[in-house]
Design brief:
Order of helices and strands: HHHEEEEHHHHHHHEEEHEHHEEEEEEEEH
CATH superfamily of the largest domain: DD-peptidase/beta-lactamase superfamily
Radius of gyration: 29 Å
Number of helices: 14
Distance between the termini: 34 Å
Number of domains: 2
Length: 505
Amino acid sequence: MKKLSYLAALLAFLIACGGGDADSDLATSSAGKTSTSNPTQAAATTTQAAATTTQAAATTAQAAATTTQAAATATQAAATATQAAATTTQQDSKQMLSVVKVPPPDFTATKGFGRFTSAEETAFAAAVSEHFYSADIRMGISAAIFDGQNLWSGTEGFARENVPMQVETPLSVMSSSKTFLSALILHQIDEGLYGLNDRLSELLVGHSGYERLNPAIISDATVEELLLMTAGHADKDTSAGGRNLNYVVTKPNWVPVDTLTLTTDMARSPGAFEYSNTSSYLLGLIAQYQSQTELNALYQSELLERLSIQAGLRPVVEIPDNMALPHADFTKYGGAPGWGDLTQMVPLGTPPGYKMDYFEQDGRLAWSAAGIISTPENMARWAYELMSPNGTALSDASRELLTTSFIDKPITLSGNTQKYGFHIAQREYKLADGTMFVTHGHPGGGGGYGSVLYYSPVLDIAVSVVANSELGYQRGQCGDFRAGDYGNPLVCAARGLFESVTSNR
């Protein structure tokens, strides 16, 4: 995944840019207005006609009385019409909602599931350890495997300096987060809020933040095009180091639409695949605006709570005290040469004593595209509930739609050849015994973390591997690079978990 980073832009943090508050991404839409002048005019005309008739029929008292009664009835009807017209002006409108911080989930070790065999669990631990320690530069790793009944998890290394990684330690899963977004979109479609063929211009009408975006950059697109990343939208540019990036990551009262201003390249014609977090941001806006509910709250109420899965969305959730800290090369993120904890990095050009709020700033860049924090235990269970026929995250119809959404034309994602669907990828590779193996899921990386999330339809097993360093950018010890089957240490560890199952059954 193209990493969500600050790069040279953080050189300008010395001058934090202020400005007025932006409109919420859940902006108020205007109600329609109906004129009431015509019914009133009709009543006046009818009354005048009645008066004329009364004068003409002065010699016939009964006729005059009848006409006067008719006029009174017409006047009453006009008044009723006027009242009805006034009522039609009181239409419902979408309400503005602000971004409010909420406490993180209570990340604890998952209980209540069975165990794999002793031989399998020994092989699991060996596979994770082997591929983690094969990395030239590393910090910590956490992994889990789940088959619907049995759950195994294990860790190696450190969550932060001198603090061992634990199975309950939360990490950022980066673009594996996209699986939550596509699930929510399909769920809302199931609920009848909108459809795959509905367009941005229809779904975000009245959204003041969206309507201020440049249509030549954020062009109109369907929900399906956004899910497939074929809308023609470029990804955001965080390399220029300009005023706008600093404004977005430091401004008070940030709202998600602010981050879309970092997409500056003109849109291309829709149809061809182009990996773009911009598409994920737009889907997040749709989910919020159509439901009038903040995105993290939607994840909790619509997906996670009924599955008892712990996960939260940055930058909305507060960072847990035991969060595994991100580690990477400082020079890639605007700092002096060195490798270490990105939360302690000082961007070049900043004054002595300056400390950036890493999680807040990176969370604003990540949000619906890469903002989920969780643990591999929870992520493996999520992948199973999402993609297994035995899972309950989605309806059967939506799960079938998700797992058959892959475009035939292969693409390259995280150095690997695969097919892309509704914010999930399908990958095929060989196991050690030569068996061809297919998985569904999504990788993630950047910002000091790396992750892979896989589900095997053949084995009906899900795997999650997450590290608090960028292991996804290192060469692993598995796969065939020449055949487009590149394996980084995370991929290799996941493959090792699958192989351990096949070889012990």
